[in-house]
Amino acid sequence: MAQDYLTVSALTMYLKRKFEVDPHLQQVFLTGEISNFRMRPGHQYFNLKDEKSKISAVMFKGAFAKLNFKPEEGMKVLVVGRVSLFEGSGSYQIYIDRMEPDGVGALYQAYEQLKQKLHAEGLFHAPKKSLPKYPKKIAVLTSPSGAVIRDIITTIKRRYPIAEIVLYPTVVQGKNSAPDIVRNIQRVEKAGDFDTMIIGRGGGSIEDLWPFNEEIVARSIFEARTPIISSVGHETDVTIADFVADMRAATPTAAAELAVPVLTEELMRIEEKQARLKQTIVNQIERKKQQHQRIIRSYLFQQPERLYESQALKVDQLKQRLTQQMQNDIYEKSKQSQLLSHRLAQVAPVYRVQQETVQLAYLTESLKRQMVALFDGKSQQFSQQVQALNLLSPLNIMGRGYNYTIDENGQFISSVKQLQVGEQVTVNYHDGQAKMKVIEVGEKQNDETDI
Question: Rounded to 5 degrees, what are φ and ψ at 94?
Fold first, then answer.
Protein backbone atom coordinates (compact mmCIF):
# COMPACT_ATOMS: atom_id res chain seq x y z
CA MET A 1 0.00 0.00 0.00
CA ALA A 2 1.48 3.32 -1.08
CA GLN A 3 2.03 5.84 1.70
CA ASP A 4 0.81 9.43 1.41
CA TYR A 5 3.62 11.85 2.34
CA LEU A 6 2.65 15.16 3.95
CA THR A 7 4.37 18.41 3.24
CA VAL A 8 5.96 20.35 6.06
CA SER A 9 3.35 23.05 5.65
CA ALA A 10 0.52 20.57 5.88
CA LEU A 11 1.91 19.05 9.04
CA THR A 12 2.48 22.47 10.56
CA MET A 13 -1.07 23.57 9.77
CA TYR A 14 -2.40 20.35 11.31
CA LEU A 15 -0.45 20.90 14.51
CA LYS A 16 -1.49 24.53 14.68
CA ARG A 17 -5.12 23.44 14.36
CA LYS A 18 -4.57 21.05 17.29
CA PHE A 19 -3.25 23.91 19.41
CA GLU A 20 -6.16 26.17 18.51
CA VAL A 21 -8.92 23.65 19.24
CA ASP A 22 -7.41 22.49 22.54
CA PRO A 23 -9.48 24.23 25.24
CA HIS A 24 -6.62 23.97 27.76
CA LEU A 25 -4.38 26.11 25.55
CA GLN A 26 -6.84 28.91 24.82
CA GLN A 27 -6.33 30.56 28.18
CA VAL A 28 -3.13 29.61 29.97
CA PHE A 29 -2.05 31.03 33.33
CA LEU A 30 1.73 30.90 33.37
CA THR A 31 4.52 32.05 35.71
CA GLY A 32 8.12 32.44 34.66
CA GLU A 33 11.17 34.66 34.45
CA ILE A 34 11.59 37.12 31.58
CA SER A 35 14.63 36.30 29.48
CA ASN A 36 16.21 37.78 26.36
CA PHE A 37 14.05 40.88 26.70
CA ARG A 38 14.86 43.87 24.51
CA MET A 39 12.47 46.78 24.17
CA ARG A 40 11.12 47.14 20.63
CA PRO A 41 9.02 49.97 19.19
CA GLY A 42 6.13 47.66 18.22
CA HIS A 43 5.38 44.09 19.29
CA GLN A 44 7.55 42.57 22.04
CA TYR A 45 9.33 39.23 21.64
CA PHE A 46 11.07 37.51 24.55
CA ASN A 47 11.26 34.24 26.49
CA LEU A 48 9.75 32.97 29.69
CA LYS A 49 11.85 30.46 31.59
CA ASP A 50 12.24 28.56 34.83
CA GLU A 51 14.97 26.27 36.13
CA LYS A 52 14.39 23.59 33.45
CA SER A 53 12.41 24.94 30.50
CA LYS A 54 11.89 27.96 28.30
CA ILE A 55 9.02 29.11 26.04
CA SER A 56 8.93 31.87 23.45
CA ALA A 57 6.51 34.69 24.16
CA VAL A 58 4.86 37.34 22.04
CA MET A 59 3.02 40.39 23.31
CA PHE A 60 1.34 42.54 20.72
CA LYS A 61 1.63 46.31 20.84
CA GLY A 62 -1.93 46.90 22.06
CA ALA A 63 -1.63 44.51 25.02
CA PHE A 64 1.84 45.78 25.92
CA ALA A 65 0.64 49.40 26.00
CA LYS A 66 -1.80 48.49 28.81
CA LEU A 67 0.98 47.45 31.22
CA ASN A 68 1.46 49.67 34.25
CA PHE A 69 5.07 48.56 34.83
CA LYS A 70 8.22 48.20 32.75
CA PRO A 71 9.30 44.60 32.12
CA GLU A 72 12.99 43.97 32.72
CA GLU A 73 15.41 41.16 32.16
CA GLY A 74 15.19 38.53 34.90
CA MET A 75 11.87 39.77 36.27
CA LYS A 76 9.52 37.03 37.40
CA VAL A 77 6.00 37.60 36.06
CA LEU A 78 2.49 36.15 35.92
CA VAL A 79 1.03 36.03 32.41
CA VAL A 80 -2.31 35.09 30.86
CA GLY A 81 -2.47 34.14 27.20
CA ARG A 82 -3.01 31.47 24.62
CA VAL A 83 -0.55 28.93 23.27
CA SER A 84 -0.31 28.42 19.52
CA LEU A 85 2.09 27.34 16.81
CA PHE A 86 4.00 29.79 14.63
CA GLU A 87 3.98 28.37 11.12
CA GLY A 88 7.11 30.15 9.97
CA SER A 89 9.42 28.35 12.41
CA GLY A 90 7.25 25.46 13.49
CA SER A 91 7.77 26.39 17.13
CA TYR A 92 5.08 26.90 19.70
CA GLN A 93 4.81 30.11 21.69
CA ILE A 94 2.51 31.90 24.04
CA TYR A 95 0.64 35.01 22.95
CA ILE A 96 0.34 37.11 26.11
CA ASP A 97 -2.80 39.15 26.78
CA ARG A 98 -2.06 40.24 30.36
CA MET A 99 1.13 40.36 32.49
CA GLU A 100 2.00 41.44 36.02
CA PRO A 101 4.97 41.05 38.41
CA ASP A 102 5.12 37.81 40.38
CA GLY A 103 5.97 38.89 43.92
CA VAL A 104 9.66 39.71 43.29
CA GLY A 105 9.09 43.43 43.10
CA ALA A 106 10.80 43.86 46.48
CA LEU A 107 13.96 42.23 45.17
CA TYR A 108 14.03 44.45 42.12
CA GLN A 109 13.42 47.51 44.26
CA ALA A 110 16.27 46.52 46.58
CA TYR A 111 18.45 45.86 43.53
CA GLU A 112 17.75 49.28 42.05
CA GLN A 113 18.20 51.07 45.36
CA LEU A 114 21.58 49.44 46.02
CA LYS A 115 22.60 50.04 42.43
CA GLN A 116 21.82 53.75 42.73
CA LYS A 117 23.56 53.99 46.11
CA LEU A 118 26.80 52.39 44.92
CA HIS A 119 26.69 54.35 41.69
CA ALA A 120 26.44 57.60 43.66
CA GLU A 121 29.43 56.55 45.78
CA GLY A 122 31.47 56.02 42.61
CA LEU A 123 32.03 52.27 42.95
CA PHE A 124 30.92 51.63 39.38
CA HIS A 125 33.04 54.29 37.74
CA ALA A 126 36.20 54.02 39.83
CA PRO A 127 39.36 53.15 37.87
CA LYS A 128 39.44 49.43 37.16
CA LYS A 129 42.50 47.30 37.85
CA SER A 130 44.17 45.89 34.75
CA LEU A 131 44.26 42.14 34.31
CA PRO A 132 47.82 40.77 34.14
CA LYS A 133 48.59 39.50 30.67
CA TYR A 134 50.59 36.50 31.84
CA PRO A 135 49.12 35.33 35.18
CA LYS A 136 50.96 32.68 37.13
CA LYS A 137 48.28 31.91 39.71
CA ILE A 138 44.49 32.25 39.37
CA ALA A 139 41.92 31.92 42.18
CA VAL A 140 38.45 30.64 41.24
CA LEU A 141 35.52 31.21 43.63
CA THR A 142 32.62 28.97 42.63
CA SER A 143 30.87 25.74 43.43
CA PRO A 144 33.23 22.74 43.19
CA SER A 145 30.50 20.56 41.65
CA GLY A 146 29.09 22.87 38.99
CA ALA A 147 29.89 23.21 35.32
CA VAL A 148 31.53 26.60 35.93
CA ILE A 149 34.76 25.22 37.38
CA ARG A 150 34.96 22.53 34.70
CA ASP A 151 34.59 25.09 31.91
CA ILE A 152 37.18 27.38 33.49
CA ILE A 153 39.73 24.60 34.06
CA THR A 154 39.21 23.20 30.55
CA THR A 155 39.60 26.58 28.91
CA ILE A 156 42.67 27.64 30.89
CA LYS A 157 44.43 24.30 30.44
CA ARG A 158 43.75 24.47 26.73
CA ARG A 159 44.86 28.10 26.31
CA TYR A 160 47.51 28.60 28.97
CA PRO A 161 48.44 25.36 30.73
CA ILE A 162 51.33 26.90 32.69
CA ALA A 163 48.92 28.91 34.89
CA GLU A 164 48.12 27.48 38.32
CA ILE A 165 44.40 27.27 39.18
CA VAL A 166 43.34 27.26 42.83
CA LEU A 167 39.68 26.52 43.59
CA TYR A 168 38.08 28.12 46.62
CA PRO A 169 34.86 26.11 47.11
CA THR A 170 32.15 28.72 47.52
CA VAL A 171 28.43 28.65 48.21
CA VAL A 172 26.93 30.55 45.28
CA GLN A 173 23.22 30.26 46.13
CA GLY A 174 21.14 30.69 49.26
CA LYS A 175 21.26 32.83 52.37
CA ASN A 176 24.75 31.68 53.37
CA SER A 177 26.20 32.47 49.96
CA ALA A 178 27.06 36.18 50.37
CA PRO A 179 29.10 35.74 53.62
CA ASP A 180 30.89 32.76 52.07
CA ILE A 181 31.79 34.77 48.95
CA VAL A 182 33.17 37.61 51.09
CA ARG A 183 35.11 35.16 53.28
CA ASN A 184 36.78 33.52 50.28
CA ILE A 185 37.64 36.89 48.71
CA GLN A 186 39.37 37.80 51.96
CA ARG A 187 41.20 34.47 51.97
CA VAL A 188 42.53 35.16 48.47
CA GLU A 189 43.58 38.66 49.50
CA LYS A 190 45.31 37.33 52.61
CA ALA A 191 47.28 34.83 50.51
CA GLY A 192 48.52 37.76 48.45
CA ASP A 193 50.13 35.71 45.66
CA PHE A 194 47.28 35.53 43.15
CA ASP A 195 47.40 37.46 39.89
CA THR A 196 43.70 37.15 39.01
CA MET A 197 40.46 36.15 40.75
CA ILE A 198 37.40 34.71 38.97
CA ILE A 199 34.03 34.75 40.74
CA GLY A 200 31.30 32.85 38.92
CA ARG A 201 28.22 30.70 38.84
CA GLY A 202 25.66 29.54 36.26
CA GLY A 203 22.39 31.16 35.36
CA GLY A 204 19.20 31.22 37.40
CA SER A 205 16.40 33.39 38.62
CA ILE A 206 16.92 36.67 40.37
CA GLU A 207 16.52 34.86 43.68
CA ASP A 208 19.28 32.42 42.73
CA LEU A 209 21.63 35.23 41.70
CA TRP A 210 20.72 37.47 44.61
CA PRO A 211 23.90 36.84 46.71
CA PHE A 212 25.81 38.67 43.97
CA ASN A 213 23.52 41.67 44.48
CA GLU A 214 24.38 41.92 48.19
CA GLU A 215 26.17 45.09 49.36
CA ILE A 216 28.80 43.18 51.37
CA VAL A 217 29.80 41.23 48.25
CA ALA A 218 29.97 44.40 46.13
CA ARG A 219 32.14 46.25 48.63
CA SER A 220 34.40 43.26 49.14
CA ILE A 221 34.98 43.03 45.38
CA PHE A 222 35.62 46.78 45.16
CA GLU A 223 38.13 46.76 48.04
CA ALA A 224 40.08 43.76 46.76
CA ARG A 225 43.59 44.46 45.47
CA THR A 226 43.55 41.43 43.18
CA PRO A 227 41.91 42.06 39.76
CA ILE A 228 38.51 40.32 39.70
CA ILE A 229 36.55 38.88 36.77
CA SER A 230 32.81 38.46 37.42
CA SER A 231 31.01 35.68 35.55
CA VAL A 232 27.56 35.41 37.10
CA GLY A 233 24.54 33.96 35.31
CA HIS A 234 23.97 34.03 31.59
CA GLU A 235 24.88 36.76 29.15
CA THR A 236 21.63 38.65 29.85
CA ASP A 237 21.98 38.42 33.64
CA VAL A 238 23.57 41.49 35.17
CA THR A 239 24.32 41.73 38.90
CA ILE A 240 25.79 44.38 41.16
CA ALA A 241 28.98 42.29 41.29
CA ASP A 242 29.33 42.73 37.51
CA PHE A 243 29.28 46.52 37.86
CA VAL A 244 31.90 46.58 40.64
CA ALA A 245 34.26 43.92 39.26
CA ASP A 246 37.27 44.91 37.17
CA MET A 247 35.96 42.86 34.24
CA ARG A 248 32.65 41.14 33.41
CA ALA A 249 32.44 37.93 31.42
CA ALA A 250 29.23 36.61 29.87
CA THR A 251 30.15 32.95 30.53
CA PRO A 252 32.71 31.01 32.57
CA THR A 253 34.52 30.16 29.34
CA ALA A 254 34.67 33.85 28.47
CA ALA A 255 36.03 34.58 31.98
CA ALA A 256 38.83 32.05 31.46
CA GLU A 257 39.60 33.53 28.05
CA LEU A 258 39.82 37.01 29.58
CA ALA A 259 42.06 35.75 32.37
CA VAL A 260 44.76 34.08 30.23
CA PRO A 261 46.22 34.42 26.76
CA VAL A 262 46.70 31.53 24.32
CA LEU A 263 50.13 30.14 25.12
CA THR A 264 50.76 28.84 21.62
CA GLU A 265 49.85 32.20 20.16
CA GLU A 266 52.10 33.98 22.65
CA LEU A 267 54.96 31.60 21.83
CA MET A 268 54.38 32.23 18.14
CA ARG A 269 54.44 35.98 18.79
CA ILE A 270 57.67 35.60 20.75
CA GLU A 271 59.19 33.55 17.94
CA GLU A 272 58.03 36.13 15.41
CA LYS A 273 59.52 38.93 17.49
CA GLN A 274 62.74 36.96 17.90
CA ALA A 275 62.89 36.41 14.14
CA ARG A 276 62.20 40.11 13.48
CA LEU A 277 64.77 41.10 16.08
CA LYS A 278 67.33 38.73 14.60
CA GLN A 279 66.64 40.01 11.10
CA THR A 280 66.83 43.60 12.34
CA ILE A 281 70.22 42.92 13.94
CA VAL A 282 71.47 41.19 10.80
CA ASN A 283 70.30 44.10 8.66
CA GLN A 284 71.88 46.60 11.03
CA ILE A 285 75.17 44.67 11.01
CA GLU A 286 75.07 44.57 7.22
CA ARG A 287 74.44 48.33 7.08
CA LYS A 288 77.31 48.93 9.48
CA LYS A 289 79.59 46.73 7.36
CA GLN A 290 78.67 48.68 4.24
CA GLN A 291 79.21 51.93 6.08
CA HIS A 292 82.59 50.63 7.30
CA GLN A 293 83.60 49.70 3.76
CA ARG A 294 82.60 53.14 2.48
CA ILE A 295 84.67 54.77 5.18
CA ILE A 296 87.68 52.60 4.44
CA ARG A 297 87.42 53.39 0.72
CA SER A 298 87.06 57.11 1.35
CA TYR A 299 89.87 59.47 0.33
CA LEU A 300 90.72 60.20 3.98
CA PHE A 301 91.91 56.63 4.48
CA GLN A 302 93.37 56.29 0.98
CA GLN A 303 95.26 59.61 1.23
CA PRO A 304 95.33 60.54 4.93
CA GLU A 305 97.63 63.48 4.28
CA ARG A 306 94.72 65.25 2.64
CA LEU A 307 93.05 65.33 6.02
CA TYR A 308 95.50 67.96 7.32
CA GLU A 309 96.61 69.71 4.10
CA SER A 310 94.21 72.59 4.61
CA GLN A 311 95.21 72.87 8.25
CA ALA A 312 98.89 72.98 7.29
CA LEU A 313 98.18 75.88 4.93
CA LYS A 314 96.38 77.72 7.70
CA VAL A 315 99.35 77.16 10.03
CA ASP A 316 101.76 78.66 7.45
CA GLN A 317 99.52 81.67 6.98
CA LEU A 318 99.22 82.24 10.71
CA LYS A 319 102.99 81.84 11.12
CA GLN A 320 103.66 84.51 8.48
CA ARG A 321 101.12 86.85 10.07
CA LEU A 322 102.72 86.28 13.48
CA THR A 323 106.22 87.00 12.18
CA GLN A 324 105.07 90.21 10.48
CA GLN A 325 103.22 91.33 13.58
CA MET A 326 106.26 90.70 15.80
CA GLN A 327 108.46 92.75 13.47
CA ASN A 328 105.98 95.60 13.53
CA ASP A 329 105.77 95.47 17.33
CA ILE A 330 109.58 95.53 17.64
CA TYR A 331 109.84 98.54 15.33
CA GLU A 332 107.19 100.47 17.27
CA LYS A 333 108.77 99.64 20.62
CA SER A 334 112.17 100.78 19.34
CA LYS A 335 110.75 104.16 18.27
CA GLN A 336 109.11 104.60 21.67
CA SER A 337 112.38 103.73 23.42
CA GLN A 338 114.31 106.37 21.44
CA LEU A 339 111.68 109.02 22.19
CA LEU A 340 111.75 108.23 25.89
CA SER A 341 115.57 108.33 25.97
CA HIS A 342 115.50 111.79 24.37
CA ARG A 343 112.95 113.04 26.87
CA LEU A 344 114.91 111.54 29.77
CA ALA A 345 118.07 113.31 28.66
CA GLN A 346 116.17 116.61 28.83
CA VAL A 347 115.07 115.94 32.40
CA ALA A 348 118.37 114.70 33.88
CA PRO A 349 118.29 113.99 37.64
CA VAL A 350 121.14 116.47 38.49
CA TYR A 351 119.24 119.36 36.94
CA ARG A 352 116.05 118.32 38.67
CA VAL A 353 117.86 118.10 42.04
CA GLN A 354 119.21 121.64 41.71
CA GLN A 355 115.75 123.03 40.95
CA GLU A 356 114.18 121.17 43.85
CA THR A 357 116.99 122.38 46.25
CA VAL A 358 116.27 126.06 45.44
CA GLN A 359 112.57 125.48 45.83
CA LEU A 360 113.13 123.75 49.19
CA ALA A 361 115.20 126.72 50.53
CA TYR A 362 112.51 129.18 49.47
CA LEU A 363 109.74 127.16 51.06
CA THR A 364 111.78 126.73 54.29
CA GLU A 365 112.27 130.48 54.69
CA SER A 366 108.63 131.17 53.93
CA LEU A 367 107.58 128.61 56.52
CA LYS A 368 109.75 130.22 59.20
CA ARG A 369 108.25 133.67 58.56
CA GLN A 370 104.74 132.35 58.69
CA MET A 371 105.43 130.43 61.95
CA VAL A 372 106.83 133.59 63.64
CA ALA A 373 103.89 135.67 62.47
CA LEU A 374 101.44 133.00 63.60
CA PHE A 375 103.13 132.72 67.03
CA ASP A 376 103.09 136.50 67.56
CA GLY A 377 99.43 136.70 66.60
CA LYS A 378 98.43 133.84 68.87
CA SER A 379 100.47 135.30 71.81
CA GLN A 380 98.74 138.67 71.46
CA GLN A 381 95.33 136.97 71.19
CA PHE A 382 96.10 134.92 74.32
CA SER A 383 97.06 138.00 76.34
CA GLN A 384 93.82 139.74 75.34
CA GLN A 385 91.71 136.74 76.33
CA VAL A 386 93.55 136.43 79.70
CA GLN A 387 92.84 140.11 80.44
CA ALA A 388 89.16 139.67 79.49
CA LEU A 389 88.89 136.54 81.59
CA ASN A 390 90.52 138.28 84.54
CA LEU A 391 87.97 141.07 84.32
CA LEU A 392 85.16 138.52 84.51
CA SER A 393 86.75 136.36 87.22
CA PRO A 394 84.81 136.17 90.52
CA LEU A 395 88.09 136.43 92.41
CA ASN A 396 88.79 139.79 90.81
CA ILE A 397 85.28 140.96 91.77
CA MET A 398 85.80 139.68 95.34
CA GLY A 399 89.05 141.66 95.49
CA ARG A 400 86.98 144.76 95.30
CA GLY A 401 85.19 143.82 98.55
CA TYR A 402 82.61 141.32 97.39
CA ASN A 403 82.10 137.87 98.96
CA TYR A 404 79.67 134.90 98.90
CA THR A 405 78.10 132.83 101.68
CA ILE A 406 77.33 129.09 101.90
CA ASP A 407 75.40 127.15 104.53
CA GLU A 408 76.52 124.08 106.44
CA ASN A 409 75.47 121.86 103.49
CA GLY A 410 77.59 123.78 101.00
CA GLN A 411 74.58 125.46 99.33
CA PHE A 412 74.94 129.08 98.14
CA ILE A 413 72.88 131.63 100.10
CA SER A 414 71.52 134.28 97.78
CA SER A 415 68.84 135.76 100.07
CA VAL A 416 68.43 136.56 103.79
CA LYS A 417 65.30 134.49 103.61
CA GLN A 418 67.51 131.41 103.50
CA LEU A 419 69.15 132.34 106.86
CA GLN A 420 67.98 131.41 110.28
CA VAL A 421 69.06 132.86 113.61
CA GLY A 422 71.68 130.70 115.24
CA GLU A 423 72.65 129.03 111.96
CA GLN A 424 76.36 128.73 111.25
CA VAL A 425 77.48 129.86 107.75
CA THR A 426 80.78 130.24 105.90
CA VAL A 427 81.66 133.58 104.24
CA ASN A 428 84.20 133.35 101.39
CA TYR A 429 86.58 136.31 100.57
CA HIS A 430 89.11 136.66 97.77
CA ASP A 431 91.94 135.74 100.15
CA GLY A 432 90.19 133.24 102.49
CA GLN A 433 87.02 132.33 104.35
CA ALA A 434 85.43 132.81 107.80
CA LYS A 435 82.79 130.84 109.71
CA MET A 436 80.07 132.97 111.29
CA LYS A 437 76.94 132.51 113.35
CA VAL A 438 73.76 134.37 112.44
CA ILE A 439 72.64 136.51 115.35
CA GLU A 440 69.93 138.53 113.66
CA VAL A 441 68.20 138.49 110.28
CA GLY A 442 66.70 141.65 108.83
CA GLU A 443 65.12 142.08 105.42
CA LYS A 444 65.58 145.17 103.28
CA GLN A 445 62.60 147.52 103.14
CA ASN A 446 60.72 147.87 99.86
CA ASP A 447 61.39 151.61 99.62
CA GLU A 448 65.10 151.15 99.79
CA THR A 449 67.06 151.40 96.61
CA ASP A 450 69.27 148.47 95.55
CA ILE A 451 72.89 149.37 94.95
Answer: -105, 135
